[in-house]
Specification:
There is one protein chain. The chain has 104 residues and is mainly alpha-helical. It is built from five helices and no strands. Helix 1 packs parallel to helix 5 and helix 4 packs across helix 5.
């Protein structure tokens, strides 16, 4: 795995922790839930779960389906998931982009 660039800017410690790790919890070997991603809180996690996006890999997969396009994913989060707060969408998309940059 590539190390994060030393000048990498993180939206939160939660985002940094998620991006620097894999999609499985190392202690339990269970896949991480969406709520563990930067920008995803309880309300957004519930909205995602209602659409069948329970796990972080589901959300990363949607980002890939959107050709890793930040604008298309932002639009999807706003219109399909119902995330209206621009800063939350930016944090979620940023988390997915940074995770993909580091792990793919």
């Amino acid at each position: 795995m590539a190390a994060a660039h030393p000048t990498e800017e993180w939206d939160s410690k939660k985002q940094q922790t998620f991006v620097e790790a894999g999609l499985k919890d190392p202690s339990t070997q269970e896949y991480k839930k969406c709520i563990e991603m930067g920008g995803v809180g309880e309300v957004t996690a519930k909205k995602l779960s209602d659409l069948g996006f329970d796990y972080a890999y589901n959300l990363i997969g949607q980002y890939m389906v959107n050709n890793m396009d930040d604008e298309a994913t932002n639009h999807w989060l706003e219109n399909e998931v119902g995330v209206k707060q621009k800063n939350l969408r930016a944090s979620i998309v940023g988390t997915m982009r940074k995770w993909c940059d580091q792990h793919l």
